[in-house]
Amino acid sequence: MKKLWVILVFSLLLCGCSAEETFETVEDVYMEEQWGPKSIEVAIPLNAKKTQLTSGEGSLYFCDGYELTTEIMAAGNLSETFGELTGFPLDSLTMVETMQTDMARYECVWTAAGEGGDTVGRAVVLDDGNYHYCVTVMAQSSKAYDLQQTWKDLLGSIQLV
């Protein structure tokens, strides 16, 4: 009986001495990057009058003799974007495609007849894969020739921040 008590005491003492298993846990620290639209930065003339566009994210500026529009649209359908900007299907426009930093840059010029007379427009679209960053300028055709250098400088200053 004495042996039984000794075995029982030792077994009770050894119950708390079992080897603990240690597990290594790895925390998932990857945070999904938020892809919101960037802002369009353009060298807008100081005397420009700004108004908010009624649809989408964008602004309309009335400058000296022309209108400047900045707008952000969802990427995906380039034909739809240019159709909305110009009023013409993509296959009827002559498109110039270049690269600006790490994204595609599309540019075109169009003319249209309207109630107020003939107009000339020029559009630039930067495509980062998620958004189309659009900048358009429009003027009466009689003033468009004199504005070419202004438009070239203005459209050359487009940056995304």
Molecular structure report:
With 161 residues, the protein is an alpha+beta fold. The chain has a domain at 50-161: Mog1/PsbP, alpha/beta/alpha sandwich (Protein Transport Mog1p, Chain A). Helices cover 22% and strands 37% of the residues. The chain has helices at residues 2-15, 78-86, 141-144, 148-156; strands at 40-41, 49-52, 57-62, 67-74, 96-100, 103-114, 117-127, 131-140, 159-160. Strands 2-3-4-8-7-6-5 form a seven-stranded antiparallel beta sheet. Strands 1-9 form a two-stranded antiparallel sheet. β6 (103-114) and β7 form a beta hairpin. The chain is rod-shaped. The model has no long low-confidence stretch (mean pLDDT 86).
Could you list some keywords that capture this structure?
alpha+beta, about 160 residues, single chain, two-stranded antiparallel ribbon
Quick synopsis:
This protein has helices at residues 2-15, 78-86, 141-144, 148-156; strands spanning 40-41, 49-52, 57-62, 67-74, 96-100, 103-114, 117-127, 131-140, 159-160. By secondary structure, the chain is an alpha+beta fold. The model has no long low-confidence stretch (mean pLDDT 86).
